[in-house]
Design brief:
Elements: H1 2-22, E1 44-46, E2 52-60, E3 63-65, E4 68-70, E5 76-83, E6 89-93, E7 98-102, E8 107-113, E9 120-124, E10 134-138
Parallel strand pairs: 1-4, 2-5, 4-10
Antiparallel strand pairs: 2-3, 5-8, 6-7, 9-10
Bound molecules: copper (II) ion.
Copper (II) ion (CU) is lined by residues 62, 87, 89, 125, 127-128, 133.
Length: 166
């Protein structure tokens, strides 16, 4: 008798675990490309069917919405950026050659052309990049941003082990 009573509980717990683990994998939170760093994901906007597109980009504490923009090489994209947060944010990208700060409650417009020398162009907020305020413009789902290094990060290639000279 005792052992049969535990079976419904196990089923209930298993169902509960399934619900909680299944939820974060829903479409809205899945990254379409690999950026190789922490990203707070707030959706993807697909404008790749157009030769030019205008879209609203929300800058908030501390994420971009949409976080990913699907585009095509050569496409001209105009972002109408709105800072809905309480902190200043930037839309910064070496690959897209843009760097624009937007203060809280303010908006700004920015236009760039999607380059053809890569498939993923990372953008970030200079203040909150490590907090996951990162996103990407991409032309191919599943591609990786690592293919096109955007900034020369410090690699341990300097000669002389133990040398602290700069
Ligand atoms: Cu920020």
């Amino acid at each position: 008798m005792r052992s049969t009573r535990t079976i419904p509980l196990v089923v209930a717990v298993a169902a509960l675990v399934f619900v909680f683990t299944a939820a974060p994998v829903s479409a809205a939170s899945k990254a379409p490309v690999k950026l190789g760093q922490k990203v707070t994901i707030k959706g993807t906007k697909d404008v790749s069917s157009k030769s030019s597109a205008k879209l609203t980009m929300e800058l908030d504490d501390k994420y971009f919405a949409p976080t990913f923009i699907k585009a095509k090489a050569g496409e001209k994209i105009t972002l109408e950026m709105e800072n809905d947060g309480n902190l200043p944010h930037t839309f910064t990208s070496d690959g897209l050659a843009v760097d624009q700060q937007v203060d809280p409650g303010k908006s700004a417009k920015l236009t760039f052309t999607v380059p053809s020398n890569g498939q993923v162009f990372q953008f970030h907020c200079t203040f909150h990049e490590t907090a996951g305020m990162v996103g990407g413009v991409y032309t191919k789902a599943g591609a990786s941003a690592n293919a096109t290094p955007t900034s020369p990060t410090a690699t341990n290639s300097s000669s002389g082990a133990g040398s602290y000279g700069y």
